[in-house]
Amino acid sequence: MSSTPGPSTALPKPPAPSVIAAVAPIRLLPIEAPQREGLIPDLKLGSGARIKPYGYFKTSVIHDSSSPGGNDFPLPLLAADTGPNGSPEFHLKARALRLGVNFEWLDPAPKTTITGRLELDFEGDFTRVNNRNVSSIRSSQPSLRLAWARIDRRFNDKVTGYALFGQDWSPFASSTLPNMIENTNFGGIGYGAIYQRVPQVRAGFNYNLGGERSWKIQPEFAVVFPAFGDLPTNVADQLGFGERQGADSDRPGVQGRVVLQWQLDKADGVVPAEFIVSYEHARRTAIVLAASVPAQFSSAFKGGAEVSSNSDAYSAELQLPTRFMTLSGKYYSGSDLRFFLGGQLLSNFNDTAGLTSTVSVPSIDGASTVVFGLLNGVPVVAPQRPVRGQGGFVQLGFPLSRLVNADPKGRNAGWTAYLYYGFDEALQRDARRSAPVHGRSDLFSGNIQYKLNSWVTFALEEGYYRTRAANRSEFDFGGLPLFRGVPSYTSHNVRSEFATIFTF
After folding, report:
1. Torsion of CA 210, 212, 216, 217, to 10 degrees
2. Closest Cα partner for 305 from 238, 253, 359, 347?
3. Half-sphere exposure of 210 (CA within 13 A, CB side)
4. What is the pLDDT at residue 6?
C-alpha cells in the first residue's frame, strides 16, 4: 500500500503572504507570555513533554585587514602589535552551527503554562587530543548558550506573571541587539552592542493596558550570578570553576528592566515598538592569602587581606518598527562593564594615590593584582576602583522589497538592508590607570540580505572597525601601543563577510 497521502489526508499548505513584512527588531527577551498549547511539537515524550527543535547552519567567508589576535571575530585593536603589515587574515568559518529545542509541559491548571529551552552552538574551544591535534580547525566543541524552564500564570485578561529558572539572556542590556552577519559577538565585542547570558532566577508581570495602540508594560527583576569576566592565570582554575571573584563577594548580583510596548505603525506586517530601561549591580572581592602577604605587611594582615569593588550600570533601549524603516538603538553607562563586553573590556584598577612603599601581589585566583602600601605610615591595601565606561549603537533596517512593492509571493520578496554605527569607550583617566591601551572603539557597518525562501538566506556585510588609544602621545603615562610596529594613537580594520545561512 502506498504511504503517499491521498486527497483527504494531504497536509494543508500555509497561506501565501499577502504583504511583505517590515523589518522586525531582534528581541531576545520578548514580553508576550507563551500561549498554552501554542507549541506545535515535532516530538512528544512519554512524560508528556512536547518538543520542537530549531537551529541554523551558517558558513562565512571572512577577510580582515587587521586581526592581530588571530580570532575569526573582531575585538578592539591596539591590544597587541600587528607585525609589519597590520596582520590581515582570511577565514572560512563553519562553526556557527546553532541547535536548540523548545519544550512545553501541559499543567492540569488551564491558566498555567510551563515552557523551557535548551540551546547550544559549536563556537566553543578547539580540541587538543591525539586524534585532533593536526585537524584542530575542524574540531570546535559544543558549548551551552541557554538552558531554562519557565512557569507562566494568567491571573485575568489583563495581567500575567512568570518565573524563570536557569541560564538566559541578562535583563540588563540584552533587550536590543543589531541585526549583524557577524554574530559571534553581535557586531564586535567592545563596539557598542553589549549583551550577556547568565545563570539567573527571574520574575515579572505583564500588564495589558489596551487602548488603540495596544499598550503593554512589563517590569522584571532577576537574581543573577555576580560575574565579572575574570581570567584566572591558572587555566586549570578557569576550566574548573570559571571565575570566582564575584562569588567571593558572598552576595548575588541583581538586574532588572521595565519594558513599554505599543503599536507605533498599524500597517500590516509591522510588529509593536518597545522602549526599555534596565540596570544591574554586582560586587567582586579579591582575596590574598596570609602566605602571600608581603613580609613587611604581614603583622598588619595576619589572616590575609581582601579588597572589593562594584559594577553598577544602566541602559536605555528603543525599537521603532514602521512599514518604511525600523530604528533600533541603545545607550549604556556604568562601571566595570567587562562581563557585558563593554568599557573596552577593562575591569578595575588599584588606586595607589598617596601610598608609599607599595608592593604588588596576585590575588588567590591570579586574576588580579592587589597592592599593599603605607598611607601616612599606616599599612593599608590600595582600593580597587571600577573602570567607568559608556557606549551604544543605532541601526536602521530597510525592507527593500516592501519599499519597491515587490510581489510577496515572488523571489524578490526577501531583500533587506541595514546601516549601523556603534561606539564603546572607557573613561580616559580610568583607562590610563588600568592599562595604557585602547580607550575607545567604534564601528561603521552595513549589510544586505536576501532571503531566498523560508530556509535559505544569503548576506554580505562590510564593516570599518576603529580603535583609539587611551593615551594621546608616546610621552603620556605608559606610552602608545604599537600598530604595524609603530607607536600609534589609532588603528583600524576593514572587515568583509559573506554568509550563507540555512535555517530550520
Report:
1. -100
2. 359
3. 3
4. 42
The domain ranges of the chain are 43-503
Q: Three cell numbers at 94?
A: 563553519
Beta strands in 263-355 (DSSP E): 273-288, 305-321, 326-335, 348-350
| DSSP 8-state assignment for residue 231 | -
Residue 305 banded pLDDT, cuts 50, 70, 90? very high
Percentage with pLDDT > 90 across the chain: 71
CB–CB of 430/309 below 8 Å?
A: no
Q: Is the pTM of this model over 0.90?
A: yes
User: Cell 555576580 maps to which residue?
Assistant: 226
pLDDT tens per residue across span 471-485: 777 666 667 777 787
Our CA angle for 175, 177, 179, nearest 5°, is: 145
One DSSP character per residue, 57-98 reads EEEEEEEES--TT--SS---SSSS---TT---EEEEE----E
Tell the burial category of 82 from Cβ atoms under 10 Å away from its Cβ (0-12, 13-18, 19+).
Answer: buried
Q: Each residue of 398-452: pLDDT tens digit?
A: 999 999 999 999 999 999 999 999 999 999 888 777 665 778 999 999 999 999 9
Identify any residues that bridge with 451 across adjacent strands, giving them in sequence order. Answer: 457
Instruction: Say which residue, 162 or 1, is predicted with more confidence.
Output: 162
Instruction: For cell 567604534, name the residue.
Output: 442
**CATH number listed for the domain at residues 43-503:** 2.40.160.10
